[in-house]
Amino acid sequence: MKKVLFFKTLTIIAASLFVSCSNLGYGISYMNHDIKLDKINKVLYLNPEIYPDFEGIEEPTYQAFFSATTDTLYKLGNIKVKRIDTEMPYDDIDVPTLKVLCNNNMADLIIVPKVKYFKVGLGRYVLSNQVIVTMKSYDKMGNLVMEVFYDTYNGSGRLIGSAENSVKIGTTGAIQKMFKKFQQRKAIGTPIS
Fold it and tell me: What global pTM score does this model have?
């Protein structure tokens, strides 16, 4: 009887640790509750800033990011998606440019993303297949609405797999987290799974 109780207790502790650790992988860094959001009908998104800045990883990262973004946003229903083929420094956002882009494209929201690869090893950069995808969303008036992140290592516990797959998983996770909050604020109508 004591062994059964011990194993049940150990199982409950292990399960709660697993669930709490997996929740550390994604979340909301910032949310502005003061902004009144209208219905989101059209979303613009920029090229992600990639860190570290190596030429060899840009094209596969862009392809994986755009694939995951369009697939995820199209599943939301009546939201139109448009890619703006430009990059903006994630930590130095040019808000007037974002407002102009939204107005010229009649968009309700613009997303500025960043994909950060993990560095492993000492000295020169040796990149891991794990990424952190971070996104800031701005409304058409240039107000920061929300910042979300998804860490593929802590969020999904991935140890193996390709970097492109990690970018897709991180992008999908960040967008789903963001749009669940938009749904709670009644800015979109389609349920998000």
Answer: 0.80
Query: Across all residues in the chain, what is the average pLDDT?
Result: 82
pLDDT tens-digit readout, 47-61: 999 998 888 889 999
Which residue is it, tokens 């979303």? 43
